[in-house]
Amino acid sequence: MGACRQGSTMARKKKDKSQERREALAELVTSVNSSKDSTVICLASSIVNTSDVRRPTGIMPLDLDMAGGFPTAGITVVTGDDQAGKSELIAYAMEMCQRIYGSESMILLCATEGPIDIDRLRQVGVQWALPPNVVAARNEARQRSRLPPLTQEEIGTTVGEIMHAYSSTGEGVLKTILKAVEANCFQLVILDSLSPLIPEANKDKDLTDEEKRAAHASMLTRFSNRFLEKVSPVRGPNYTSVVFTQQMRANQEKANAPSYMQGYIPSTAPTGARALKHAVKMRIKLSEGQKLKKVVRGEKKVIGKLMKWEFLKAKDGAHNHITGDVPFYFGEHGTPDGVHRLNTVVEAGLRWAVLRERDDGKSSGIYFANGDKERLADTIPDLLCSMREDPILELRIRQAILGARGLMVRYDFRP
Fold first, then answer.
1. 98 pLDDT exceeds 70?
2. Same structural domain for residues 311 and 389?
3. How high is the pLDDT of residue 36?
4. Which pLDDT score is estimated for 276?
5. Are 310 and 361 in a shared domain?
């Protein structure tokens, strides 16, 4: 009996100690959070995982390499030389956002390299109505040429919300991006491009190249620190995907290195890479590959090129140094314009046994290669046409391909 009472007493003491620790923990959380403007400490069980929410580019092999698409609550930097396809990739992501979210699509575009080329975005597939001043100017020109005014179909409609932000200083642009991230209402926040941002300290001043680089790096470091604070999981889930484009510049480290080391150092490097490194989840380098040619009337014509990518940094399920490529066409000699994204979906579906072509004499067509054997179309061209007209079908096939690769990704996600 005495041993039982002793054991019971020890259990109560152990329980009391556990209760004391829990009370001390609750007191700590209350004390720390009450002394700050926002939550800085919380239970791990209260944190919401957002890493499975992605924003796809529409290029299936690239989306697979990114573990589904651009990650949320972090920055993806797309770097490359001129004409590498950075702005084109951004346009593809905008179009996919509209296809997935429809009227609930919300995109913020900060263009720093000149006026936005709305015609090119529309040509890629972004649904953006021509502004009234553009419509008036074009109708006036058409009237002089005795042509009818633009139809409503030619003017187009904007799906969802596309907002444009501009500031004369780099700090102004980055401050707007921080506010947009904090608002947590945009699926995509895009800065095209990071390279032209001019720190306020540099305006109207004659600085050396080294001083300009230092001011630019300082500006980005301050932004990076504030960005990480905004997307901290203790502040609640953030579903904003932030994408920056960035020009490659001559690598100063190579110029400063000893001659025997220069052969091992790349000739170009992205600007401000170190200043943003902690906030960047992915850094993807685009480059031009070999030219694509086609025989036209007995003569070889260049009809496109390969768009190549390499992951310089990757988190959230992706991996460093992954490379890939996809054909990019110039829209001439009977070829599509840009990357034929739906083709990449069908090719990936067949490769990963999500789709199956069947022609056994009794029946033929394109099927889902699952137990249900759902028939999707008679031929691949018919399937492409159906996917183009039906975003839900396209999304089903994309999700099935991701699942076949073991990627549990949410696209059509509305918090």
1. yes
2. no
3. 67
4. 85
5. no
Residue 225 tokens read as 């620190």
Give per-residue pLDDT as tens, 118-133.
999 999 999 999 999 9
- Non-local CB neighbours of 93 within 8 Å, separated by 6+ positions: 55, 56, 57, 58, 69, 70, 188, 190, 243
- Residue 93 and residue 284 in contact, taking contact as beta carbons nearer than 8 Å: no
**Secondary structure class of 187 (helix, strand, coil):** coil
Query: Cα(287)–Cα(83) distance, rounded to whole angstroms?
Result: 8
Q: Do residue 215 and residue 361 come from a single domain?
A: no
Residues present in the chain in total: 415
pTM of the model: 0.87
| Half-sphere exposure in the Cβ direction for 261 (13 Å, CA) | 6
Beta strands at 74-80 and 280-296: parallel, antiparallel or unpaired: parallel
Question: Can you say how many angstroms the Cα of residue 200 is from the centroid of all Cα atoms in its chain?
Answer: 28
As given in the structure block, the two tokens for residue 320 are 């460093």
154-181 pLDDT, tens digit per residue, is 999 999 999 999 888 999 999 999 999 9
| CATH code at position 355 | 3.30.250
CA distances from 133 to 138, 151, 162, 164, 324 (A): 9, 15, 17, 16, 42
For the chain, the farthest-separated pair of C-alpha atoms sits apart, in whole angstroms, at 109
Nearest Cα neighbor of 397 from 356, 357, 354, 367 is: 354
The 10s digit of each residue's pLDDT in 14-64 is: 567 888 888 888 888 888 877 766 677 887 888 888 999 999 999 999 999
CA distance 110 to 180: 11
Tokens of 124: 């890629």
Residue 393 domain-assigned (yes or no): yes
DSSP string, 329-348: EES-TT--EE--HHHHHHHH
DSSP string over 239-283: --EEEEEEEEEE-HHHHHS-HHHHTTS-SEEETTTTTTTTTEEEE
Residue 184 burial (C-beta neighbours within 10 Å; 0-12, 13-18, 19+): middle
Domain count, the chain: 2
Question: From CA 55, how far away is CA 72, in angstroms rounded?
Answer: 8
